[in-house]
Amino acid sequence: MISMQSTPGIDASNFVSSFNLAFYFMVGIALLFMLGLTVLMLYFVYKYNRKKNSKAVQIEGSVRLEILWTVIPALLTLLMFYFGWSGWKPMTKAPDDAMVVTSTARMWNFSFEYENGKSSPELVVPVNTPVKINLVALDVIHSLFIPAFRIKSDMVPGRETMMWFLPQREGQYDLYCAEYCGLQHSYMTSVVKVVSQEEYLKWYTDTTAVTTATEGSAPGAEGLAILKNRGCNACHTSDGSKLVGPSYLDLRFGEKLIVLRDGKETEVTVDETYIINSIYDPNSEIVKGYPKGLMQSYKGVVPEDEITKIIEYLKSLNEEQ
Question: 43: which of 72, 101, 111, 159 is 20 to 30 A away, CA to CA?
């Protein structure tokens, strides 16, 4: 966890204390049994060693002892269940006044969309405000995990799930995908930024396009920022090296490219139409040498004005060659 502000005595979220209580209780029980059984084992080794008991003796059972070692573990198991259940149950229903964010997971990035239409690769939330996250997976099973908040939930394609929490301390916290989802799984990370109400309102109402510090100083810089924001660089590179998908350098405008269309090799011209089709219907034409089905459609996710800026960036790469 990376924290921008440390406030002693305040948990990062409302679920931390109940989770920690259940965890410490279960670890305590495990340690108690481990130490108890180890001491008992050593005692039996000493008391019933071969030198002291050269001849085996039948030991009669004890009903009282059997009742004790049945009832006590059963009660401890019920206690562990209670602590776990009492911590989990409140996680299943978000408050009615919770702000709603939709998290979309795809190989291999998260994006977070807010009620005003704003989208961000980072989860930005105001402190002391309940947050409900609708979880959407577009390709395979992912899992959104925020260790500092003690929350984790699977994101299953075709299934509606949600998670919620109350951030109680300002700071920046790590966010991971906790379900192995393919080649670049370990790179599927983001952060949660918990900010003040005033800072959040300023950020929330600023709906300008995502830019980088180099915007205006390099051709197509805004398009590159969009590609990074949408997680495209997890599968594609700008330097010609091969990842999951073809490099941007392979897209030379006006030149021919061999693709597989309905399983047959076809020659297409790299132009604006081809780029738009590759983003909105990526599996209709697969570049030869690459697998089908890894990229899902970005239709409804990437608007046309962003595609225009992406095309400007791709054209700038051609000019640099």
Answer: 72
87: pLDDT strictly greater than 60: yes
The answer to whether the CB of 112 falls within 8 A of the CB of 122 is: yes
CA nearest to 16, candidates 151, 109, 134, 205: 151
Report the C-alpha gap between 228 and 94 in whole angstroms. Answer: 32
Instruction: Mention every residue, 6+ apart, whose C-beta is less than 8 A from residue 33.
Output: none
Burial 240-261 (b: 16+ CB within 10 A, else e): eeeebbbebbbbebeeebebbe
For residue 2, pLDDT over 80 is answered with no
Rounded Cα distance between 75 and 84, Å, is 14
Query: H helices then E strands: how many in the chain?
Result: 6, 13
Give the whole-angstrom CA distance, residue 122 versus residue 103.
10
Cα distance between residue 282 and residue 279, in whole Å: 6
DSSP sequence for 140-186: S-EEEEEGGGTEEEEE-TT--EEEEE-B-S-EEEEEEE-S--STTGG
Show the domains of the chain with their CATH numbers. Answer: 1-207 (2.60.40.420), 221-320 (1.10.760.10)
Please say whether the beta carbons of 291 and 94 come within 8 A. Answer: no
The answer, yes or no, to whether residue 319 has pLDDT greater than 60, is: yes
- DSSP codes, 21-65: HHHHHHHHHHHHHHHHHHHHHHHHHHHT-TTT-SS--PPPP-HHH
If you ran DSSP here, which 8-state letter would residue 189 be given?
E
Distance, in Å, from the CA atom of 139 to the CA atom of 155, rounded to the nearest integer, reads 10
Q: Is the peptide bond before 108 cis (omega within 30 degrees of 0)?
A: yes
Q: Where are the beta strands (DSSP E) in 178-285?
A: 189-195, 256-261, 264-269
Contact assessment for residue 269 and residue 254, using Cβ atoms and an 8 Å cutoff: yes
